[in-house]
């Protein structure tokens, strides 16, 4: 059966988050962005309305929704601002989800309720200063010493890792050698404030300026053996699954940004005049906006489709990669065109499109670059591994 | 404490609001409809009282089928059940007719202690309905509340008007209407949205309430909108150069406009 309509509770959620983004985020986010400040109060409000608990069951303080509900919320937030959207995405899909999916009953009880309320944030440390795309090449190590894991190494660009409310970082580390001589990779929960775990000052970023990103270092950092997340040696497989889902979420953010560009342009071209007419009268402008809408729409269908397969328990690797690729490119193209339509004002930070322009690029990089998405799609098509 | 909250679906203040050319009633097609923000605050206040003291919150709304969205929102915020008066015959009803219908609808709710409403709706802005309902039900009314508290069967409100702040009390049951300052309404959570789907909404017609269809609607309304025109565009204004007589000129201007 082919049905394009969403269930009414999804629509109600979309509408609620849209109202929230419009009423609470839009008026204040520009200032946070300019000051490169983390918007704690907005995050608290997002927590109060249950956004951080969306895909988790009620027994852990969640909302009993699913991953698609999270995607809809992300899309509507990103339509107004990407910094708050990525804070939610990283918090839920990278911070909480691995604990929910791979954690022991005790780990879930300990961490999830606070994370679901948005009163605490979790982070996920995979990328290292030496490389991110080749996740298997990681160099951070964790050695079992008595009842402790001892971590050594560093992580780069880790979202949500240094806020006042960050509770933990799940760190991917090499914990030994496999039978065939390869790296044994595992995931280990490192609570914030653990001695030997240092969070560097924040990066000066091109975009996502109201989100929190840090480099992390671990020097003889000890955590109890039971902080192992999931089975020892399963780390690589675990984060591949985490990232597949995360791609659908990032695609939703890209769609939000792409649609936000259309929203802003529709308003602007109805007001701005040039050569004695509203610029919306010019076909050159209309065609740009039509193309923008078409890109946002197709990218939305791509992520809906990937999410639908995910929720049905079907394989969605290829669909997730296609969604992420399509959506991040749509976001990038729409941000470029929207800025163009705004002319000089598009280059000013006080207009949202300037922010969209700066925020779009990272979508083609984070959680797998566009090249990596193409590699995944090619591999799913059965093409040989290329060099 | 059992609380009735009156809610209304209004055109979104973000969209363009128009009256129809035919009968000068609200053009409901022209704008997105939302739960009136002031009603959200009334619902929020009811939920806070319920959370503190227990009881049940019943939403009562009069409006076309589309008003179910506003009712759903109130239910997803946490209200327990709803009464929706929906009837073609109600089209064009004025404040007095509306108050009569709502008073009857409130009568179907058993054992209420408090009726909460918004001070005035953001569309019609008559601001008279809560007072009329109190009159019809023979209940005390405390309007323009910016703070509500209880002591046994007494309700106390801080009433804020342009003249200042007064503290007024009444014994329950009573009608209380709230202003923007009362609270910050919550956003419904997804859990609330899903729970709302299962909450009972009792949809009734005017006949169900024992009202004759001829008593309501445009034809029987006591007030009629004869004409409606959009606000004229803002004009450039008048410049007054101050050569020592500026104050006098401004005063003369204001007198000319009958403003002072
Ligand atoms: C703001 C921000 C937030 C982030 N948040 C997190 C986080 O929370 N957690 C986390 O773990 N990481 C995070 N990252 C890291 C991000 O996921 C990586 O930057 C990304 O995966 C790319 O890795 P890299 O930067 O090391 O680039 P590299 O892997 O060094 O890639 C450099 C270039 O080479 C290309 N390339 C690499 N391999 C191939 C190949 N085989 N074929 C063709 N081209 C190739 C890449 O596509 C890219 O263009 C974040 C990054 C940023 C900027």
From TrEMBL, chain A:
<protein>
    <submittedName>
        <fullName>Acyl-CoA dehydrogenase</fullName>
    </submittedName>
</protein>
<dbReference type="InterPro" id="IPR046373">
    <property type="entry name" value="Acyl-CoA_Oxase/DH_mid-dom_sf"/>
</dbReference>
<dbReference type="GO" id="GO:0050660">
    <property type="term" value="F:flavin adenine dinucleotide binding"/>
</dbReference>
<dbReference type="InterPro" id="IPR037069">
    <property type="entry name" value="AcylCoA_DH/ox_N_sf"/>
</dbReference>
<dbReference type="Pfam" id="PF02770">
    <property type="entry name" value="Acyl-CoA_dh_M"/>
</dbReference>
<keyword id="KW-0560">Oxidoreductase</keyword>
<feature type="domain" description="Acyl-CoA dehydrogenase/oxidase N-terminal">
    <location>
        <begin position="8"/>
        <end position="119"/>
    </location>
</feature>
<comment type="similarity">
    <text>Belongs to the acyl-CoA dehydrogenase family.</text>
</comment>
<dbReference type="InterPro" id="IPR006091">
    <property type="entry name" value="Acyl-CoA_Oxase/DH_mid-dom"/>
</dbReference>
<dbReference type="InterPro" id="IPR036250">
    <property type="entry name" value="AcylCo_DH-like_C"/>
</dbReference>
<feature type="domain" description="Acyl-CoA oxidase/dehydrogenase middle">
    <location>
        <begin position="123"/>
        <end position="221"/>
    </location>
</feature>
<dbReference type="GO" id="GO:0003995">
    <property type="term" value="F:acyl-CoA dehydrogenase activity"/>
</dbReference>
<keyword id="KW-0285">Flavoprotein</keyword>
<feature type="domain" description="Acyl-CoA dehydrogenase/oxidase C-terminal">
    <location>
        <begin position="233"/>
        <end position="381"/>
    </location>
</feature>
<dbReference type="InterPro" id="IPR009075">
    <property type="entry name" value="AcylCo_DH/oxidase_C"/>
</dbReference>
<dbReference type="InterPro" id="IPR009100">
    <property type="entry name" value="AcylCoA_DH/oxidase_NM_dom_sf"/>
</dbReference>
<dbReference type="InterPro" id="IPR006089">
    <property type="entry name" value="Acyl-CoA_DH_CS"/>
</dbReference>
<keyword id="KW-0274">FAD</keyword>
<dbReference type="Pfam" id="PF00441">
    <property type="entry name" value="Acyl-CoA_dh_1"/>
</dbReference>
<dbReference type="Pfam" id="PF02771">
    <property type="entry name" value="Acyl-CoA_dh_N"/>
</dbReference>
<dbReference type="InterPro" id="IPR013786">
    <property type="entry name" value="AcylCoA_DH/ox_N"/>
</dbReference>
From TrEMBL, chain B:
<comment type="subunit">
    <text>Heterodimer of an alpha and a beta subunit.</text>
</comment>
<dbReference type="Pfam" id="PF01012">
    <property type="entry name" value="ETF"/>
</dbReference>
<dbReference type="GO" id="GO:0005829">
    <property type="term" value="C:cytosol"/>
</dbReference>
<feature type="domain" description="Electron transfer flavoprotein alpha/beta-subunit N-terminal">
    <location>
        <begin position="23"/>
        <end position="213"/>
    </location>
</feature>
<dbReference type="GO" id="GO:0009055">
    <property type="term" value="F:electron transfer activity"/>
</dbReference>
<comment type="similarity">
    <text>Belongs to the ETF beta-subunit/FixA family.</text>
</comment>
<protein>
    <recommendedName>
        <fullName>Electron transfer flavoprotein subunit beta</fullName>
    </recommendedName>
</protein>
<dbReference type="InterPro" id="IPR014729">
    <property type="entry name" value="Rossmann-like_a/b/a_fold"/>
</dbReference>
<keyword id="KW-0249">Electron transport</keyword>
<comment type="function">
    <text>The electron transfer flavoprotein serves as a specific electron acceptor for other dehydrogenases. It transfers the electrons to the main respiratory chain via ETF-ubiquinone oxidoreductase (ETF dehydrogenase).</text>
</comment>
<dbReference type="InterPro" id="IPR014730">
    <property type="entry name" value="ETF_a/b_N"/>
</dbReference>
<keyword id="KW-0813">Transport</keyword>
<dbReference type="InterPro" id="IPR012255">
    <property type="entry name" value="ETF_b"/>
</dbReference>
<dbReference type="InterPro" id="IPR033948">
    <property type="entry name" value="ETF_beta_N"/>
</dbReference>
């Amino acid at each position: 059966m082919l049905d394009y309509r969403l269930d009414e509770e999804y629509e109600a959620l979309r509408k609620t988050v849209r109202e929230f983004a419009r009423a609470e985020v839009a008026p204040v986010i520009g200032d946070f962005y300019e000051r490169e400040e983390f918007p704690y109060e907005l995050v608290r409000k997002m927590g109060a309305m249950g956004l951080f608990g969306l895909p988790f069951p009620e027994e852990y303080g969640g909302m009993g929704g699913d991953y698609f509900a999270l995607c809809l919320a992300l899309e509507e937030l990103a339509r107004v601002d990407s910094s708050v959207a990525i804070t939610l995405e990283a918090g839920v899909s990278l911070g909480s989800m691995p604990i929910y999916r791979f954690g022991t009953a005790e780990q879930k009880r300990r961490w999830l309720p606070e994370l679901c309320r948005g009163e605490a944030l979790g982070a996920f440390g995979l990328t290292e200063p030496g490389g991110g795309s080749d996740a298997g090449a990681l160099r951070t190590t964790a050695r079992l010493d008595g009842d402790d894991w001892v971590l050594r190494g560093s992580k780069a660009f880790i979202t949500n890792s240094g806020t006042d409310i960050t509770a933990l970082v799940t760190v991917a580390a090499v914990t030994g050698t496999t039978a065939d001589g390869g790296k044994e990779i595992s995931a280990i929960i490192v609570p914030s404030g653990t001695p030997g775990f240092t969070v560097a000052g924040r990066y000066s970023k091109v975009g996502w300026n109201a989100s929190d990103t840090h480099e992390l270092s671990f020097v003889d950092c000890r955590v109890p053996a039971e902080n192992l997340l999931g089975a020892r040696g399963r780390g690589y497989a675990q984060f591949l699954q985490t990232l597949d889902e995360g791609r659908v979420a990032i695609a939703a953010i890209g769609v939000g940004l792409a649609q936000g560009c259309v929203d802003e342009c529709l308003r602007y071209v109805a007001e701005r005049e040039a050569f004695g007419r509203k610029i919306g009268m010019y076909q050159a402008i209309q065609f740009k906006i039509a193309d923008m809408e078409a890109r946002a729409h197709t990218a939305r269908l791509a992520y809906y489709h990937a999410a639908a397969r995910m929720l049905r328990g079907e394989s969605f690797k290829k669909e997730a990669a296609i969604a992420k690729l399509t959506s991040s490119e749509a976001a990038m193209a729409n941000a470029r065109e929207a800025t163009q339509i705004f002319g000089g004002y598009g280059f000013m930070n006080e207009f949202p499109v300037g922010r969209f322009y700066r925020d779009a690029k990272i979508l083609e990089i984070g959680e797998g670059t566009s090249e990596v998405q193409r590699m995944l799609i090619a591999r799913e098509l059965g093409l040989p591994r290329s060099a | 404490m059992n609380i009735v909250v009156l809610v209304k679906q209004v055109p979104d203040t973000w969209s363009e609001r128009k009256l129809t050319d035919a009968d000068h009633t609200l053009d409901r097609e022209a704008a997105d409809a939302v739960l009136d923000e002031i009603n959200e605050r009334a619902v929020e206040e009811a939920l806070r009282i319920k959370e503190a003291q227990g009881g049940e919150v019943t939403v009562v709304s009069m409006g076309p089928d589309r008003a179910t969205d506003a009712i759903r929102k109130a239910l997803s915020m946490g209200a327990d059940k709803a009464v929706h008066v929906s009837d073609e015959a109600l089209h064009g009803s004025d404040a007095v007719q509306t108050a009569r219908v709502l008073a009857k609808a409130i009568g179907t709710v058993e054992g209420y202690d408090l009726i909460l409403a918004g001070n005035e709706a953001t569309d019609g802005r008559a601001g008279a309905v809560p007072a009329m309902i109190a009159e019809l039900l023979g209940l005390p009314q405390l309007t323009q509340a910016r703070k509500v508290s209880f002591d046994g069967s007494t309700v106390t409100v801080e009433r804020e008007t342009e003249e200042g702040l007064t503290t007024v009390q009444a014994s329950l049951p009573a009608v209380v209407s709230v202003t923007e300052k009362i609270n910050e309404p919550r956003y419904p959570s997804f859990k609330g949205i899903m729970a709302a789907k299962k909450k009972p909404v009792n949809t009734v017609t005017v006949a169900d309430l024992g009202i004759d269809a001829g008593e309501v609607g445009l034809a029987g309304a006591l007030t009629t909108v004869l004409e409606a025109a959009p606000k004229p565009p803002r004009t450039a204004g008048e410049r007054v150069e101050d050569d020592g007589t500026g104050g006098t000129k401004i005063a003369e201007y204001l007198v000319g406009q009958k403003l002072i």
